[in-house]
């Protein structure tokens, strides 16, 4: 039986409840199991699973709208959701390099039990593999299967993941690199709780340690010669950039909402009227709305083109991510600056929105790489 596509109203309603406990999750850094359970119950964790497998069958446009809505309520939860929907959009599509039985088994797990998945790529020495280099995580042949040993850092969602898509290097005479699908309840896996960051504190982006973990041969879902990974995949870039842009735009929209309420309610005795009556605040709110309006157009356009099969070049998807996230940061920073001490008080959510939105600069593709690659292309270097 095919599941109905969860409506945006469902996501928005859930996001309101997430927002009510966001400060507590931020303060403690506790993984939002309650929020994830609510998304699971609503069917949102299978939003982009094809309808032939019982999922929502949604494309990138609906995924981005949903991530943005959840991000306005609790962005750490939205990041975990975004990573799962990203993989669904990539590995369950026609033409995926994954063996169809393995991909379908994951899709059914997402439908039946809301199984979370994320790519585990970053390592202590390597950093992000998108900047080049070979992973230290090794996959060794073991009969028809593999044995995997290594450490992955910044593994978003680690306490709740059912599967990790682990980036490895094989021990073959001519090593290949690529992804093994690893059930994270397998013997030899442990999560070390190392995540203690400025923003997105509840994302559970801890270390995942793999010690001689047995992986079936069919779960080597995408191994290639290292040079074959040199060029970014346009589909992966579009999905990743759109979902991350939508997430941080959601944070900025939450900040703008609080800013507007503050200006309407704050009546300094020296003024005798709300701050909203002053032209400088009206201009600031209007400038924020301009940036948010641009963001909406950019994310919607990228998602619509992708869903229609007109994939933008990876460079253009990177432009969207960088532009939207820098706009989002500007929105939140402007609100914090104009609110004075109230904007930086932990009694108000704006300081949390500021810490969370700054994390946008960490996610790949980062601004320096987008600009440098574009410059090199234009200069012919």
UniProtKB/TrEMBL annotation:
User: What region holds the Acyl-CoA dehydrogenase/oxidase N-terminal domain?
Assistant: 10-96
Entries under SUPFAM superfamilies matching the protein: Acyl-CoA dehydrogenase C-terminal domain-like, Acyl-CoA dehydrogenase NM domain-like
Highest taxon in the source lineage: Bacteria
For this UniProt record, the keywords arranged alphabetically read as follows: Flavoprotein, Oxidoreductase
Q: List, for all copies, the residue spans of the domain called Acyl-CoA oxidase/dehydrogenase middle.
A: 123-213
Sample GO molecular function, one term? oxidoreductase activity, acting on the CH-CH group of donors
Q: Which Pfam families match?
A: Acyl-CoA_dh_2, Acyl-CoA_dh_M, Acyl-CoA_dh_N
Pinpoint the Acyl-CoA dehydrogenase C-terminal domain residues: 244-363
Q: Under which name does UniProt file this protein?
A: Acyl-CoA dehydrogenase
Q: Where does this protein come from, organism-wise? A: Methylobacterium durans
């Amino acid at each position: 039986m095919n599941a109905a596509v969860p409506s945006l109203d469902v996501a928005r309603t859930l996001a309101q409840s997430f927002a009510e406990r966001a400060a507590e999750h931020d303060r403690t850094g506790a993984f939002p199991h309650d929020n994830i359970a609510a998304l699971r119950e609503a069917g949102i964790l299978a939003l982009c699973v094809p309808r032939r497998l019982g999922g929502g069958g949604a494309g990138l446009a609906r995924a981005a709208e949903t991530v943005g809505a959840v991000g306005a309520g609790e962005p750490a939860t939205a990041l975990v959701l975004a990573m799962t929907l990203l993989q669904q959009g990539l590995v369950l599509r026609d033409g995926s390099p994954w063996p169809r039985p393995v991909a379908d088994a994951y899709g059914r797990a997402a439908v039946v039990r809301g199984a979370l998945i994320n790519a585990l790529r970053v390592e202590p020495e390597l950093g992000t593999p998108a900047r080049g280099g070979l992973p230290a995580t090794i996959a060794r042949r073991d009969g028809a299967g593999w044995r995997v040993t290594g450490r992955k850092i910044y593994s978003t969602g680690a306490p709740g993941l059912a599967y990790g898509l682990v980036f490895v290097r094989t021990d073959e005479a001519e090593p290949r690199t690529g992804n093994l699908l690893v059930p994270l309840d397998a013997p030899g896996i442990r999560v070390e709780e190392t995540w203690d960051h400025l923003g997105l504190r509840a994302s559970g982006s801890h270390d995942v340690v793999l010690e001689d973990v047995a992986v079936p041969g069919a779960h080597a879902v995408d191994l290639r010669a290292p040079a074959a990974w040199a060029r970014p995949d346009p589909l992966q870039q579009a999905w990743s950039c759109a979902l991350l842009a939508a997430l941080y735009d959601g944070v900025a929209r939450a900040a703008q909402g609080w800013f507007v309420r503050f200006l309407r309610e704050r009546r300094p005795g020296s003024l005798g009227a709300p701050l909203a009556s002053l032209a400088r605040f009206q201009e600031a709110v209007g400038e924020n709305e301009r940036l948010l309006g641009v963001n909406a157009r950019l994310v919607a356009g990228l998602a619509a083109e992708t869903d229609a099969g007109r994939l933008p070049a990876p460079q253009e998807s990177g432009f969207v991510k960088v532009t939207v996230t820098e706009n989002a940061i500007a929105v939140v920073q402007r609100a914090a600056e104009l609110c004075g001490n109230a904007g930086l008080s932990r009694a108000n959510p704006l300081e949390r929105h500021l810490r969370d939105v700054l994390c946008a600069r960490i996610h790949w593709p980062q601004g320096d790489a987008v600009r440098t690659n574009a410059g090199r292309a234009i200069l012919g270097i």
